[in-house]
Specification:
About 35% of the residues are buried. The longest helix has 18 residues. With about 140 residues, this protein is of the alpha+beta class. The protein has a single domain, classed as Sufe protein. Chain: A. A three-stranded antiparallel sheet has the order 1-2-3. Helix 1 crosses helix 2. It is globular, with a radius of gyration of 14 Å.
Length: about 140
């Protein structure tokens, strides 16, 4: 993939985010705030046993935050909670250092955020939804 394609993925998810709506019947929920730029995200999950059956987000954020949250909902729906946790940790490593674990490298939508580490002030924008997901996994409604 080239950087133009990466940009297109980010633009698509920021302009037309997936799963940007309340989640009726959510079983888990958490809120996250990036005080540096004002991003506010709420992640809601429906878990059946250990499986994330649905993942939605609400809130307002910059284009990177919105795209990251939208991508998160696509990439984590259907995963088991331990897989979602591992993916969130791998994504954080990618965002902070540019180092892509195989689980992230094999997911083109996540790889689209792989250059954010070059812009340290934007790392929190990209990771906020993922950090909020980790909190949501531990917070039943």
């Amino acid at each position: 993939m080239n950087e133009e394609l990466y940009q297109e993925v980010l633009l698509q998810h920021s302009r037309r985010p997936k799963n940007l709506s309340p989640l009726p019947g959510a079983t888990h929920r958490a809120e996250g705030v990036n005080a540096l730029c004002g991003d506010e995200i709420t992640i809601e999950l429906t878990r059946e046993g250990d499986t994330l059956r649905a993942v939605h987000f609400q809130g307002s954020g910059c284009a990177i935050c919105t795209a990251s949250a939208s991508i998160l909902t696509c990439e984590t729906t259907g995963l088991r909670a331990p897989e979602a946790r591992a993916l969130a940790e791998d994504f954080r490593r990618l965002a902070v250092s540019g180092e892509a674990a195989p689980a992230v490298a094999d997911r083109p939508r996540l790889a689209a955020l792989g250059t954010v580490h070059r812009y340290p002030q934007r790392v929190k924008c990209a990771t906020l939804a993922w950090e909020t997901l980790l909190a949501a996994l531990d917070h039943p409604v």
